[in-house]
């Protein structure tokens, strides 16, 4: 039996996920419980969940969550103390006498200030203030999307760094996120995208519901792919004082994320780790002193200052680069592509598909890839040829604890670094989700500025030559096939009769 004698809560019960990690580490708590809808719809019909973070400030590994689940099955009863009333609005300690040998203390903290204090030790706030409110300041537009990061953006970017109050919008946290879906992408942050297209603002960003994910935009709505975002931060990492002090221990990305960060690591001779999807894998490397900066294609970016991805940190990292280089977002991105090449990247999600059909499709793909004759094959599209260098089902051995994660996704890797990846998840009664990732590398200076869709269509045009799929896959997701089969999937009847 363990008695928890002290509970620390953010004022008004609002804390961003990065702030939770920050406070756990600051007060050396044994862990933290986060009640969150993250980037999913809020309210009783949304995807509300409970997340447990361990003493490092990072998400609990499976070993711990499995133990919690096992213990939950043996619980016989629990007790409630209805007389315990806590005013979440008053900062300070409140002590209660309960049926234990020790008093129970509830401490309400200003989590915004704790988080801001941490960031002051990471970034050059004087340089950022000059960028945002000096004589030649840039105009920024930050959309908190009615998530919990709103108060943090207001305090740090507007009040402390001097950006005008109207630089930050939708900053009042709402239980239903203002009736919107707080996912920082081009679809759900369409209002920000349209505002940026007007040309009034030089830099824009959107955040998700719990403040750990972000989307970066340049003037006129110039979109920064999340895979590119972490690569640019890696290439300009010395713009951030924190890394001038600590040095760069290593870079990492999740397996589906494009190889843009790999190109930076190779050029700058930095260690590069490719991990399964999930921030806990990054945390393990950080705790072992092997990792400084990491990111994932699903709009998550972070560093070893905490053990969670951190949306506002990523935005301040970008602003630090703008302050140092004195260029626009678009110019920085184009210079980056000229130096390292460009990874044209896209992802398709096909949700609630038939689980049996999805598994059969993955099995068929794996069988095709496992054929020894598959390696070395060349596939051409217009003036470009792709040669298969490696094909596998990604397996990760953690260099810290030796744990092995198998079956993390099918990878086809070409000799130039281009990749095709399939991942299957959620194969329960509610159906499966198939994720398809296309990562096409281009180093020709004359082609790196192409529209991404134009470049990727060339990749699709040879894709159908690689796989022959049974007809039953037609019923996985009719829109999926209708939209994509003319681009990259050539379907056959089970008896090999051509459709």
TrEMBL record:
<keyword id="KW-0472">Membrane</keyword>
<keyword id="KW-0460">Magnesium</keyword>
<dbReference type="GO" id="GO:0004614">
    <property type="term" value="F:phosphoglucomutase activity"/>
</dbReference>
<dbReference type="Pfam" id="PF02878">
    <property type="entry name" value="PGM_PMM_I"/>
</dbReference>
<dbReference type="Pfam" id="PF02880">
    <property type="entry name" value="PGM_PMM_III"/>
</dbReference>
<comment type="similarity">
    <text>Belongs to the phosphohexose mutase family.</text>
</comment>
<dbReference type="InterPro" id="IPR045244">
    <property type="entry name" value="PGM"/>
</dbReference>
<feature type="domain" description="Alpha-D-phosphohexomutase alpha/beta/alpha">
    <location>
        <begin position="246"/>
        <end position="340"/>
    </location>
</feature>
<keyword id="KW-1133">Transmembrane helix</keyword>
<dbReference type="InterPro" id="IPR016066">
    <property type="entry name" value="A-D-PHexomutase_CS"/>
</dbReference>
<dbReference type="InterPro" id="IPR005841">
    <property type="entry name" value="Alpha-D-phosphohexomutase_SF"/>
</dbReference>
<dbReference type="InterPro" id="IPR036900">
    <property type="entry name" value="A-D-PHexomutase_C_sf"/>
</dbReference>
<dbReference type="InterPro" id="IPR016055">
    <property type="entry name" value="A-D-PHexomutase_a/b/a-I/II/III"/>
</dbReference>
<feature type="transmembrane region" description="Helical">
    <location>
        <begin position="467"/>
        <end position="493"/>
    </location>
</feature>
<keyword id="KW-0479">Metal-binding</keyword>
<keyword id="KW-0963">Cytoplasm</keyword>
<dbReference type="InterPro" id="IPR005844">
    <property type="entry name" value="A-D-PHexomutase_a/b/a-I"/>
</dbReference>
<dbReference type="GO" id="GO:0005975">
    <property type="term" value="P:carbohydrate metabolic process"/>
</dbReference>
<keyword id="KW-0597">Phosphoprotein</keyword>
<dbReference type="Pfam" id="PF24947">
    <property type="entry name" value="PGM1_C_vert_fung"/>
</dbReference>
<dbReference type="GO" id="GO:0005829">
    <property type="term" value="C:cytosol"/>
</dbReference>
<dbReference type="InterPro" id="IPR005846">
    <property type="entry name" value="A-D-PHexomutase_a/b/a-III"/>
</dbReference>
<dbReference type="Pfam" id="PF02879">
    <property type="entry name" value="PGM_PMM_II"/>
</dbReference>
<keyword id="KW-0812">Transmembrane</keyword>
<dbReference type="GO" id="GO:0000287">
    <property type="term" value="F:magnesium ion binding"/>
</dbReference>
<protein>
    <submittedName>
        <fullName>Phosphoglucomutase 1</fullName>
    </submittedName>
</protein>
<feature type="domain" description="Alpha-D-phosphohexomutase alpha/beta/alpha">
    <location>
        <begin position="12"/>
        <end position="78"/>
    </location>
</feature>
<dbReference type="InterPro" id="IPR005845">
    <property type="entry name" value="A-D-PHexomutase_a/b/a-II"/>
</dbReference>
<feature type="domain" description="Alpha-D-phosphohexomutase alpha/beta/alpha">
    <location>
        <begin position="114"/>
        <end position="219"/>
    </location>
</feature>
């Amino acid at each position: 039996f363990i008695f928890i004698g002290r509970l620390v809560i953010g004022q008004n019960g609002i804390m961003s996920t990065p702030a939770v990690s920050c406070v756990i580490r600051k007060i050396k708590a044994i862990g933290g419980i986060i009640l969150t809808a993250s980037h999913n719809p809020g309210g009783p019909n949304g995807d509300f969940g409970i997340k447990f973070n361990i003493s490092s400030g990072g998400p609990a590994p499976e070993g711990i969550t499995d133990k919690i689940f096992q213990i939950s099955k043996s619980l016989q009863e629990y007790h409630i103390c209805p007389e315990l009333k806590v005013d979440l609005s008053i900062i300070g300690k409140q002590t209660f006498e309960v049926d234990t040998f020790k008093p129970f203390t509830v401490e309400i903290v200003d989590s915004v200030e704790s988080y801001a204090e941490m960031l002051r030790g990471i970034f050059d706030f004087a340089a950022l203030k000059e960028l945002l409110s000096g004589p030649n300041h840039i105009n920024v537009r930050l959309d908190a999307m009615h998530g919990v990061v709103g108060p943090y953006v207001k305090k740090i970017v507007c009040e402390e760094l001097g950006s005008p109050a109207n630089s930050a919008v939708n900053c009042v946290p709402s239980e239903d996120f203002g009736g919107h879906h707080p996912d920082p992408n081009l679809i759900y942050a369409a209002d920000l995208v349209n505002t940026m297209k007007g040309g009034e603002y030089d830099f824009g960003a959107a955040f998700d519901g719990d403040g750990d994910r972000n989307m970066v935009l340049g003037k006129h709505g110039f979109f920064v792919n999340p895979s590119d975002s972490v690569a640019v931060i890696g290439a300009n990492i010395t713009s951030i004082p924190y890394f001038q002090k600590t040095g760069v221990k290593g870079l990492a990305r999740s397996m589906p994320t494009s190889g843009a960060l790999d190109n930076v690591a190779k050029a700058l001779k930095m260690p590069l780790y490719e991990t399964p999807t999930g921030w806990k894998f990054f945390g393990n490397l950080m705790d072992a002193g092997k990792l400084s900066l990491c990111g994932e294609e699903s709009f998550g970016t972070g560093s070893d200052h905490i053990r969670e991805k951190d949306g506002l940190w990523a935005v301040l990292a970008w602003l630090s680069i703008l302050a140092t280089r004195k260029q626009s977002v678009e110019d920085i991105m184009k210079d980056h592509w000229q130096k390292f090449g460009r990874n044209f990247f896209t992802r398709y999600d096909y949700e609630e598909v038939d689980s049996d059909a999805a598994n059969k499709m993955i099995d068929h793909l794996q069988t095709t890839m496992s054929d020894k004759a598959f390696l070395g094959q060349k596939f051409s599209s217009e003036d470009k040829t792709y040669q298969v260098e490696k094909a596998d089902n990604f397996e990760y051995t953690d260099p810290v604890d030796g744990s092995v994660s198998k079956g993390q996704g099918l990878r086809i890797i070409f000799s130039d670094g281009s990749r095709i990846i399939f991942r299957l998840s959620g194969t329960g009664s509610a159906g499966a989700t198939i994720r398809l990732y296309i990562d096409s590398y281009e180093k020709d200076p004359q082609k790196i500025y192409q529209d991404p869709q134009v470049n990727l269509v060339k990749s699709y045009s040879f894709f159908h030559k690689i796989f022959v799929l049974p007809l039953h896959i037609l019923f996985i997701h009719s829109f999926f096939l209708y939209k994509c089969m003319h681009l990259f999937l050539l379907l056959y009847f089970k008896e090999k009769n051509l459709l």
